[in-house]
Amino acid sequence: MSDNKTSDLRMLFALFNEIGIIEQLSRTLFEGRLPKGVLVSHFSVLNHLSRLGDGRTPLDIARAFQVPKTTLSHTLSLLEKRGWIEMRPNPADKRSKLVYLTDAGRTFRETAIDSLAPDMAAMADHLNLGDIEAMLPKLAEIRSYLDRARDAAGT
Amino acid sequence: MSDNKTSDLRMLFALFNEIGIIEQLSRTLFEGRLPKGVLVSHFSVLNHLSRLGDGRTPLDIARAFQVPKTTLSHTLSLLEKRGWIEMRPNPADKRSKLVYLTDAGRTFRETAIDSLAPDMAAMADHLNLGDIEAMLPKLAEIRSYLDRARDAAGT
DNA sequence: CTAGTTTGGTACGATGTCGCACTACTTATA
DNA sequence: TATAAGTAGTGCGACATCGTACCAAACTAG
């Protein structure tokens, strides 16, 4: 009984440990390919807007990445300073804003993807993509659980 | 052909995206259970030393977590300030130091694990541990690949 | 042995992250 | 409609992370 519990606990620790290290390594790797001063968090926002459509509110984006809104606010201000996004008023809610990609933003995303592509291609060669595909729904499930647990954390 | 490539790329983006969000959520969740001012990075170091044995050099530990040595140096100084670790000279290399857990450090680790246990237990109830167990070697493989890619990045 | 190179660790500065507090607006309630 | 409660976004301060530069010790080559 308690043996099972401790082994469960060990396994979960191992999981989050691996995930933490992979996050660390992949972030460092990708940031090494991006122009100086551009972080993965910046690219991710541009990519998100491009893939899922722009015209979203900052809070929508913050929730998508599960980061505090103040963090995203900072990121957006940098993206705007670089001319990659544009903040427009939200006609539906005067407190709110809508985030739009500029042409420069779309262009930057494309070139960034191009500079990441060789690494990605190498990964695709060396890793088992079938395994990764199979893993994605399991990871999404873990993500979703943590998301719910976070909401319940006020308890 | 190029369709496959772009779908591979999409899949890898999705993977790192999920991993980033899970890292984010789990870190926030765990840090909410730790005493104010104690971060997951601190706990992880104590846990590492306890599980794999202390008397390691800072650089060993930095490599284990794949963080820059300056980051670990900062973390260790905080742990030392709290009396949870002890830095002793390395008899084998006068430039180097060895990191040892103190009794207070071991005790803190235990209580921290206890305070994390309820969340972990809930996860163990709601997640499929078999899936996670199966995922661990795949994640380790990805980690290992990224590790090698990092070393080759100087190329 | 000595000079040049490599390695372990730290100091310092820049910057991203994030909690707190606040304002402006919206929604719910009476 | 008026008042209270909730929500979107930002300013600010604290601090972790990390790159650069540096020192001291260890290794390597001649």
Automatic annotation (TrEMBL), chains A, B:
InterPro entries noted in UniProt: ArsR-like_HTH, HTH_MarR-typ, MarR/SlyA-like, Tscrpt_reg_MarR-type_CS, WH-like_DNA-bd_sf, WH_DNA-bd_sf
Assigned keywords, A-Z: DNA-binding, Transcription, Transcription regulation
SMART domains with a match to the protein in the record: HTH_MARR
Residue ranges of domain HTH marR-type in the record: 5-151
PROSITE patterns found in the cross-reference section: HTH_MARR_1, HTH_MARR_2
The protein's name: MarR family transcriptional regulator
Domain of life: Bacteria
Keyword Endoplasmic reticulum: no
